[in-house]
C-alpha cells in the first residue's frame, strides 16, 4: 500500500555516522532513508544578551538545504539576502527541541550551536535534523566533560523526532516524500528518550482526523522514536 512497500509501522533504514568533520566539537551524518543531513555542534564561550550573567547555558540551531538536495535546484537563501519563513520556523523548532533535553544550569554560561545542513531531502528533514542534532550535541558535551570544563552531564535525555501521518486512509510511520506530498494528515512528533513529549505538530492536509486517529499516530511516533533513540545511543557509545 505504501509506495516504498514498507509496513504501516515500519521506519526507513536509519544510519548515523559520527566524527564526519574535522573541526566541529561534535558532528554526524544522519541518513533516514534517502534523507541525509549533516549535523555539527559548535561550543562558544558566550551566550545571547538576554541571558548574559544568569549562569545559564544556551543551545540554538541553524538549518539549511543545499541547492540540489531536492529534485530541482533551489536558490541559495543567501542570494536573496534573507532566510525563508520555512527555514526560520524549522531552525527554531530544532533549537527549542534540543533545549528541552538540556539542564542549562549544568551546561554553564556557554552556547552550543547545532548546524543542520540537508544534503539530500526525501521527507522528514526537520525530524532527521533534530535526531542527528542531538548526536552532535552529545559528542560536543562529551568533550566538555572530558576536559572537565563542566562536572555534571547537562543532557537530561536523548531527543528524537519522527513524522507520522494518514496516507491513503491509514496511519503510517515515518513519511517519505511521496507519502508526505499526498498525506491527508501530516504530523511531526518530538520526544525525549524518557518518554516525555516535547512538541507535536499536526495538521489536516486535505482531510480531517479523529481523536482516535491522533492516538494511533502518537503510538506510532513513540515506537519510531524509541528506535531512533536506540540508534542515537549506539552511535555515541
TrEMBL record:
Entries under PROSITE patterns matching the protein: RIBONUCLEASE_PH
Family annotation (Gene3D superfamilies): GHMP Kinase, N-terminal domain
InterPro entries named in the record: ExoRNase_PH_dom1, ExoRNase_PH_dom2, ExoRNase_PH_dom2_sf, PNPase/RNase_PH_dom_sf, Ribosomal_Su5_D2-typ_SF, RNase_PH, RNase_PH_bac-type, RNase_PH_CS
Family the UniProt entry places it in: Belongs to the RNase PH family.
NCBIfam families in the record: RNasePH
Ranges where the Exoribonuclease phosphorolytic domain occurs: 10-140, 158-223
The protein's assembly and partners: Homohexameric ring arranged as a trimer of dimers.
Lineage: Bacteria, Pseudomonadati, Pseudomonadota, Alphaproteobacteria, Rhodobacterales
Keywords: Nucleotidyltransferase, RNA-binding, rRNA processing, Transferase, tRNA processing, tRNA-binding
Name of the protein described by the UniProt record: Ribonuclease PH
Catalyses which reaction(s): tRNA(n+1) + phosphate = tRNA(n) + a ribonucleoside 5'-diphosphate
EC number: 2.7.7.56
Chain positions recorded as phosphate binding sites: 86, 124-126
The keyword DNA-binding belongs to this UniProt entry's keyword annotation: no
GO MF, one example: tRNA binding
Biological processes per GO annotation: rRNA 3'-end processing; rRNA catabolic process; tRNA processing
Amino acid at each position: 500500500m505504501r509506495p516504498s512497500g514498507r509496513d504501516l509501522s515500519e521506519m526507513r533504514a536509519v544510519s548515523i555516522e559520527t566524527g564526519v568533520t574535522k573541526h566541529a566539537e561534535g558532528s554526524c551524518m544522519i541518513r533516514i532513508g534517502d534523507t541525509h543531513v549533516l549535523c555539527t555542534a559548535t561550543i562558544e564561550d558566550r551566550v545571547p544578551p538576554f541571558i548574559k550573567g544568569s549562569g545559564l547555558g544556551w543551545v540554538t540551531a541553524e538549518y539549511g538545504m543545499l541547492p540540489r538536495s531536492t529534485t530541482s535546484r533551489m536558490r541559495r537563501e543567501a542570494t536573496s539576502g534573507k532566510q525563508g519563513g520555512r527555514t526560520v520556523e524549522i531552525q527554531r523548532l530544532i533549537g527549542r527541541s534540543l533545549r528541552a533535553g538540556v539542564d542549562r544550569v549544568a551546561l554553564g554560561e556557554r552556547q552550543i550551536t547545532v548546524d543542520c545542513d540537508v544534503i539530500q531531502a526525501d521527507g522528514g528533514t526537520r525530524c532527521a535534523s533534530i535526531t542527528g542534532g542531538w548526536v552532535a550535541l552529545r559528542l560536543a558535551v562529551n568533550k566538555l566533560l572530558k576536559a572537565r570544563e563542566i562536572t555534571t552531564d547537562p543532557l537530561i535525555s536523548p531527543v528524537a523526532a519522527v513524522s507520522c501521518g494518514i496516507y491513503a486512509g491509514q496511519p503510517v510511520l515515518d513519511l517519505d516524500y511521496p507519502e508526505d506530498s499526498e498525506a491527508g494528515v501530516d504530523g511531526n512528533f518530538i520526544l525525549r528518550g524518557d518518554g516525555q513529549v516535547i512538541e507535536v505538530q499536526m495538521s489536516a492536509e486535505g482531510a480531517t482526523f479523529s481523536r482516535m486517529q491522533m492516538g494511533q499516530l502518537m503510538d506510532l511516533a513513540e515506537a519510531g522514536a524509541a528506535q531512533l533513540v536506540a540508534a542515537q545511543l549506539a552511535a555515541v557509545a
